Amino acid sequence: MKQQAQQGVEQTVLMLFRKDLRLDDNPALLAALQAAKNVVPVFIWSPEEEGQFQPGRCSRWWLKQSLACLSAQLAALGSRLIIRRGTACVEVLLQLLRETGAGAVFFNHLFDPISLVRDHDMKQQLTAAGALCRSYNADLLYEPWTVLDDNGEPFTTFASFWQQLQAMPRQPPVPWPAPAALPAVDSALHSEVLDALPFFSSREQEAAAGQLSSKWRPGCEGGAVRMQQFIQEQLQHFSHRKANVDRCCCSRLSPWIRVGSVSVRHIYYRVRAQQAEWAAAGVDHDSSCRDFMQQLAYREYSRYLSFHFPFMHERPLLSHLRCVPWNLDQHAFKAWKMGMTGYPLIDAAMKQLWSTGWMHNRLRVVCGVFAVKYLLLPWQWGLKHYWDQLLDADLESDALGWQYLSGCMVDAPPFGQLMDIPAEAASFDPDGEFVRRWLPVLARMPTQHVHAPWTAPQEVLDAADVELGFNYPRPIVTQEDAAARLTSAAAVIEASLQQQEQQQQGQQQQEDIPQQQQQQSASKQPYRPPTEPMQSYSRAHHTAAAAAAEHMRQQHSNVELASMPQQQQQRAPTAAAAAAPAAAAAAAAAEDEAPGIQAAAAAGPEAPGHEQQQQQDDMWQQQALQNDVHLRQRQQQHRHQQLQQRLWHQQQRQHRPSSHKRRRQGSQELQQQQQQQQRSNAGGSAAAADAAGVARAAAAAAGDGGAGGHEYGYDYAAESGSDCSEQNSNAPPAETMMTACSGIMQQQQDGSECSGGLEEEQQQQQQQQQQQQQQQQQQLEEGDHVLQQPLPQAELQPQEQQQQQQDGMPGLRQEQQQQDSTMQAALQPDQLQEEQQQHEEQQEQQDWEQEQRQQAWMTQLFGS
Q1: Is 498 in contact with 331 (CB distance < 8 Å)?
Q2: Which of the 8 DSSP states describes residue 194?
Q3: What angle do CA 473, 478, 480 make, to 5 degrees?
Q4: CA 327: distance to chain centroid?
Q5: Which of 468, 475, 654, 671 is least crowded, fewest Cβ atoms below 10 Å from its Cβ?
Q6: 628-637: Cβ within 8 A, 24+ apart
Q7: Does the annotation flag 393 for ligand binding?
Q8: First to last CA, the chain
Q9: At what angle do helices 89-100 and 113-128 cross, to 10 degrees?
Q10: What does pTM read for this prediction?
Q11: 394 carries a ligand binding annotation
């Protein structure tokens, strides 16, 4: 059978559809059509293989609708989709090979840990049965084994990964069009009826049909319409409106991308084409295009980490965070799931999730932070709940998001950093419309209290018909209690980190210790609470996933190198050579962790015996201590750079006053000089000249203050990672100014297509700041202009003559009163200065908070 399959022309092959439910840009389908005359499209429904990560209600509804659309497209081209039901995919494939006489199976890669083990085992069994097994990349722009650092190791921060993506020597493969026709499938071949498959119960079917059908249009056609609508109407506003959860410009393409109805490469080239079209028309929307491309890169990064660290959906990437004293409170977990926490933004977001199966990305982050850091619930619980409820539930993206917001990554915020939920709510939903839509009980609450009803006076609650504890819950936890609990947990983590460092230092001294005592010391595991309701996979499964990933990397690296032209092989020392150190390290780690990788892969998610499990746990404990050193070192370096940067800017601010202080000082000197001028009765022209000179000095002081304010604003921007080297000659060294966000764009190569967007955005921000400062300067100069005018002659005469002249000239008296009122307003500028000072402080605070949020939550973490 294998020899017949290699001849290719007269053979029948199977095309296995999984998370690639489309005909265009499907490399496996294209290869199958080129390799054989007859192609049988197959879909196998085997949710038992997914273990605890079986698709949720909304995901199952979306999958069923997408399969119906794919089946209709295949029928239009003369083929049909063969649907089978089974508990193991490989068993169904072997049965189909016997029924059709096919000699090969074609499918596309999946990079989640469960699929890595299953696909590796499937390839081995199909090869043993005499059939060819070929897999291709239809899910990513670049395969994970092609993006490595100079030492051949995977990147552990998104900044370095994003920088490497933009510096790749070649563009992603151009998407292929859909075939014009397909060979017919034997009508005698049995296929299950799609509606007869047990996707969900009758109640779930009714609920899904009523709530989701009116809001979404699954399938390739619906995805193409949504992509076209987003690119033409909303992409240009993406960077400006993406922070508003009520009127956002999110693409909402993630449900189509998850099942493969829309190709990521198709989206990539459509956005590039639109960006080029805007550039040709003289319209600048590069910042929006760059931000959206970064969202696609986050999705790539989630698959990248899942491939290189296949345990990240269950264990933190930083091993010392395994000992967090989690609060295993099922009642708090249920209140969070049902949207009954007493925090309106959290409750509204969770109710939206229940109703529509979708949430804004920022809401996913805020709700996740609330669960992990306010309620101290295990992040694995939140991951599982998102998986069960989201339409675009994606194991790799969700694992990345929960690892990040829990502080389990090198470039993540510290675990002990607490987010101010009401402040975030006021920023993301400033008018409170989102909360009022999903929480009708708070529809009559005023905007200033809608995000924190517990702060409203009783008369306001009565007017809004809100009774805390009756028709809306009180806060399940206060911010003070949450901060105290989080600080205590952070102290436990710090103690665990110090203990691990001591153990690492003491490993060199264990050679003289007896072997039995070493095993007893290694068997002591740190405190890890159970992660119910989510059961863990065994260590053997994680090891098998690592081995499968390494096998895939070696296989495809060799194939790609062999398929390159001779010149490209000479120019690429490269992929195979760079991957060798990482491949050897992964193979050694897998060999040390669990001998017998094939047996572990065959065992699947079932745990081995007690003694074998204990030995594997011991070996994993020692290996984790060794492998975690470089991650913690990179995290410490990252934190040290941020600390140096903040200290430098703090010292700079201490050595110079702020802009409003310098303007106030100049105005006070001006006021004192003007009062002295009024007291003098002689030398009017000299007094006026003195006033003019003082006014010019005050204007110069105000100008200096404006420049100082400009500089002062750049202090906050620099703390957030913006480039200040051109505006501030006293900028710190480049290594202290580099942060996670700025490092993405500052180190781009000249040939990158996204290299100019950040500089143009910074120039626009600088121009806006300069315009605001010029307006403020004009306001001050208008007040100074009144003071520079010479005093009226009536004021220089004796008081009696002045009164006689005013009594005889009413018009002159009215004009004099107007001048006096103008002079009084100019001589008493305290109120104007205070208002201006408050405005400047608020503006600086808002800019600083915005930059901090962009740096801390750069990962829009769950889907695109």
Answers
A1: no
A2: G
A3: 175
A4: 26
A5: 654
A6: 628/318, 628/319, 628/320, 628/500, 629/504, 631/156, 631/317, 631/318, 631/410, 632/318, 632/320, 632/497, 634/156, 634/157, 634/410, 635/318, 635/410, 635/411
A7: yes
A8: 43
A9: 30
A10: 0.63
A11: yes
Annotate 545-561 with b (16+ C-beta within 10 A) or e (fewer): bbbbbbbbbbebbeebb
847 among the known binding-site residues?
Answer: no
What are the residue ranges spanned by the domains of the chain?
319-487, 538-626, 628-679+686-747+769-788+838-864
User: 10-residue block means of pLDDT along the chain (864 residues)?
Assistant: 43 93 94 92 91 86 93 94 92 93 92 87 91 92 90 89 90 91 91 84 59 85 92 85 69 92 94 92 88 92 90 80 87 94 95 90 93 94 92 90 87 86 88 92 93 93 92 93 91 78 59 41 37 46 57 54 40 39 40 34 36 50 49 57 62 53 54 62 45 42 37 30 35 36 38 45 64 60 42 40 44 49 47 63 70 56 42
Task: Using alpha carbons, select from 122, 137, 136, 130 the residue that is nearest to residue 92.
Answer: 122
Give just the sign of the alpha carbon dihedral 98, 100, 103, 104.
Answer: negative
CB 255 within 8 A of CB 394: no
User: Amino acid identity of 46?
Assistant: S
Backbone angles phi, psi at 537, to 5 degrees: -80, 165
Q: Is the torsion defined by CA of 344, 346, 347, 350 positive or negative?
A: positive
Round to whole Å and give the CA distance between 758 and 239.
12
Torsion from C-alpha of 255, 91, 187, 42, nearest 10 degrees: 20
- C-beta of residue 214 within 8 angstroms of C-beta of residue 64: no
Task: Determine if residue 392 is labeled as part of a ligand binding site.
Answer: yes
